[in-house]
Amino acid sequence: MKKTVKKTLLALLSFIIVLTLASCGKEDPAKVWEEAMAKNAALTDMDAAMEMNMEMEAEGEKMSIAMNLEMKMNRINTDEMCYAADTEMNMKVEDMDFDIDGSTYYVDGYCYTEMMGQKMKYAMDLDTMMKSIEQNNLASGLDTGSMKNLSMKKDGDNRILIYTADPEAMSDGIEGIMDIMNGQLAMLGGMDIQMNVKEIKGECTINQEGYMTKSVMAMSFEMEIEGMLCTVTADTITEVKNPGQPVEVTIPDLSGFKEISY
Fold first, then answer.
1. CA 196, CA 221: separation in Å to the nearest integer?
2. Which of 6, 157, 202, 224 is the most buried (most CB within 10 A)?
3. What are the C-alpha distances in Å from 223 to residues 11, 12, 55, 133, 187?
């Protein structure tokens, strides 16, 4: 296990980075879901935060990760899109307990990542970057065809959508995550990683303007990393702050990042 700790940590970090967001009257919960997802997808600016707690077990050893992500972006889905995310993590594995901070930026067609003392940049087209951002909240990538169950209840002026997703539908759509992870892990010379989603369930809060403002999700999956099988559970809370309002994104000096390709 100790020989593979660094690669396993980087694989999980990449998943997180590229990781990184239910019955009521006669309203159709599927329609409410689709309208809310479409409304959020049309945002040109976004200020969001995600909290994740992850537990992993591999070869009898356990690892836990607590992570907080702050993400801002503007001019979404345009060639001038800017993205900035800061991540704070605490990891416990075997007898080790340590903190890891990281940052990711996207500007002018390049993704810049600083993680575990390494700075790298690589060219990334806008469509691929948007897939990476969407995976920070897997609920944004779900549609009603991926649902096994979907219901809705009222909470004041908000509506709460409660769902269970079809794991096979999520496994089929996981290729986007794997593409991003391959880029994040290119500095290791490539890794053989397979992922299989076992269960996804959660709830989304829709405000009175029809925006999704909060997503709570519980997920379990398996990752096979260079032949080592890891079982993982992840609980996430994603919040979108003041949707519909403009967001200012600050990009720091990005000199000193080593360019890589994949």
1. 6
2. 202
3. 9, 9, 12, 20, 20
Report the C-alpha dihedral over residues 16, 114, 181, 84, rounded to 10 degrees: 60
Which amino acid makes up residue 151? S
Whether this prediction's pTM lies above 0.85 is answered by: no
For the stretch 193-206, pLDDT in tens is 677 788 889 999 99
Tokens 């290729």 map to which residue?
175
User: How sure is the predictor about 22, in pLDDT bands with cuts at 50, 70 and 90?
Assistant: very low
CA angle at 102 for the pair 224 and 49, rounded to the nearest 5°: 90
Pair 135, 110: CB distance under 8 Å: no
Tokens (6 digits) for 17: 């980075």
Residue 176 predicted with pLDDT over 60? no
Instruction: Record the tokens describing residue 133, joined without a space.
Output: 């951002």
**Average pLDDT of span 12-29:** 52
49, 241 Cβ separation under 8 angstroms: yes
Report the C-alpha gap between 70 and 88 in whole angstroms.
9
User: How far is it between the farthest Cα atoms of the chain?
Assistant: 57
Our measurement of the distance from residue 70's CA atom to the centroid of its chain's CA atoms, rounded to an integer in Å, reads 12
Cross-sheet strand order for the sheet of 212-225: 147-155, 158-165, 193-206, 212-225, 228-240, 46-58, 61-74, 82-93, 96-107, 110-115, 118-123, 258-259
CA atoms within 13 A on the CB side of 159: 23
